[in-house]
Design goal:
Blueprint (H helix, E strand, L loop, with lengths): L5 H33 L3 H27 L9 H18 L7 H33 L3 H34 L3 H26 L14 H11 L1 H16 L2 H22 L8 H10 L2 H32 L4 H27 L1 H17 L9 H37 L4 H29 L10 H11 L2 H14 L6 H20 L1
Protein name: MFS transporter
Organism: Colwellia marinimaniae
Family: Belongs to the sodium:galactoside symporter (TC 2.A.2) family.
């Protein structure tokens, strides 16, 4: 068993600290920047986010396939981290730059820069996530590595979420446009330094034979013919979610039924009748652990996304102190770092499956308890919120290490490994869950008549905010716990699979 050195775990963690300067930090403020500083309407910004969310479904999968088929002297995944970093830093700055343009040209500029940012993030983060799966063949070491990773992620998010408003005020001195731009210059510099550390300190140890039966160009062309499997279900879900009428419902049923029939037909084909891309898809669709994790990624992101999306409203209107939001975010993220670092120890005690279920149930119960917190009781809010967040931080830590287990299972079962594709689908479903969570917050508030520009609507919307901080996210936690009951891989099975794969690879090298 390969034990990863401490310095390498820290080096890997710096990569997610860098990525979360963008994902957990900068993107958390992008909506308010677009509407309050850049000058976009809320409707235009909402459509922008929806379009980019749909494109993520394509780019994540494509990047996973490209990374799986990359071969350099630095490995499959590490080079992409290095190559993409300058573009990620550049578009991070450009997204928060306010050029002197007309309203229509500003919208075009926002589309170009935001799509550029999400594309650069995909090219960077999909290989970064997959790197965990090839740094070690040990499932226990992956759990430890995932704990370090998310401690870094929460630290990176803390840096931006906790201090960006103060930095904007300091650098802008009354000019928010300049404040955001100069703040992003600073964060972009930090991002580049942290990513270089990750590239320089990590090592890919798990190597597999690359399928040379077709080249990358042919595989991507083949993927383009199978894109409806990815795009149409996501489009149908998005339309049904946003419009919730009979026409979108009918479209959803037709699309999902058709896709199910086509997938069933594809799975029944023999391997020789399928292209490389289709075999990858079949490997995933017949991988029960991966399918369950896919659902878990969506449910846990809905759980966490709804809570985080409601906090600003809750403190402004329920608590009556919107300046307390920053302190609450800092408290949550500090507890999250502790939760991520404790995951490996707790997983060894309980096992990953049981720990996932326990974390979902305890965090869900503590979150539901927000429903009975007296209005303005800061002490109860911080105690409940931080306690729930400790267990919530365990969820993504387990999710990404268990994706590595599902990659092992796929290789053990099918003799083929697509680490990048498995992790890209995992990151994509988390992005989707986060997007739907943000939309659900707005849908619930709208159902209670909330209008941020009309103070008369606030009182009637307070029960909706209370539900969004309690029972609504808790329901997704409980659903996730129920789904995880069916997860088939135990610690003993993971160990057996790992041992068999190491022997296979050793035999392959010997021949």
């Amino acid at each position: 068993m390969t034990k990863i050195p401490f310095y390498e775990k820290v080096g890997y963690a710096t990569g997610d600290a860098a990525a979360n300067l963008v994902w957990r930090g900068a993107l958390a403020y992008l909506a308010v920047f677009y509407t309050d500083t850049f000058g976009l309407t809320a409707a235009a910004a909402a459509m922008l986010f929806l379009v980019v969310r749909l494109s993520d479904g394509v780019t994540d999968i494509i990047m996973g396939m490209i990374a799986d088929r990359t071969n350099t002297r630095w490995g499959k995944f590490r080079p992409w981290i290095l190559w993409s970093t300058p573009f990620l830093a550049l578009f991070m700055v450009l997204c928060f730059t306010t050029p002197d343009l007309s309203d229509s040209n500003k919208l075009i500029y926002a589309y170009i820069t935001y799509i550029g940012l999400t594309l650069a993030y995909t090219v960077n983060n999909v290989p970064y996530s997959a790197l965990m799966g090839v740094m070690t063949a040990s499932d226990t070491e992956r759990t430890s590595l995932s704990g370090f990773r998310f401690a870094g992620a929460f630290a990176g998010g803390l840096l931006v979420m906790g201090f960006l408003p103060d930095l904007v005020a300091y650098f802008g001195d009354g000019n928010d446009a300049l404040g955001y731009q100069y703040s992003m210059y600073m964060f972009a510099g930090i991002l580049i330094a942290l990513m270089v550390i990750t590239f320089a300190t990590t090592k890919e140890r798990v190597t597999t034979v690359v399928d040379q039966s077709s080249n990358l160009k042919a595989e991507l062309f083949d993927l383009s013919k199978n894109l409806p499997f990815i795009i149409l279900p996501l489009l149908a879900m998005s339309l049904f979610f946003y419009y919730r009428n009979i026409y979108s419902g009918i479209f959803f049923v037709i699309v999902m039924t058709s896709i199910w029939l086509l997938i069933k037909r594809l799975i029944n084909n023999t391997p020789k009748d399928m292209s490389g891309t289709q075999r990858d898809m079949v490997d995933l669709l017949t991988n029960k652990p991966w399918l369950i994790l896919l659902g878990m990624g969506f449910l846990t992101m809905m759980y966490n996304g709804i809570k985080y999306g409601t906090i600003a409203y809750y403190f402004k209107y329920q608590v009556g102190d919107d300046l307390m939001v920053g302190k609450y975010f800092i408290a949550l993220l500090l507890v999250s770092i502790l939760g991520a670092l404790c995951t490996n120890f707790l997983a060894k005690m309980l096992g990953k499956r049981k720990l996932f279920i326990v974390s979902l149930m305890i965090s869900g119960v503590l979150t539901a308890a927000f429903y009975w917190v007296p209005q303005g009781n800061i002490t109860a809010i911080f105690i409940l919120g931080c306690s729930a967040e400790f267990f919530a931080a365990i969820m993504p830590t387990l999710f990404f290490t268990m994706l590595g287990d599902s990659a092992d299972y796929s290789e053990w079962k099918n003799g083929r490994r697509a680490t990048g594709l498995i992790y890209s689908a995992g990151t994509f479903v988390q992005k989707t869950g986060g997007g739907f969570a943000g939309a659900l917050v707005l849908v619930v508030l709208a159902s209670y008549g909330y209008d941020g520009m009309d103070k008369a609507t606030i009182e009637a919307s307070l029960p909706g905010m209370q539900l969004l901080m309690s029972w609504i996210p808790a329901a997704f936690a409980f659903a996730g716990a129920a789904l995880m009951v069916f997860y088939p891989l135990t610690c003993k099975q993971n160990q057996q699979i790992g041992d068999e794969l190491r022997q296979r690879r050793a035999d392959l090298v010997a021949t």
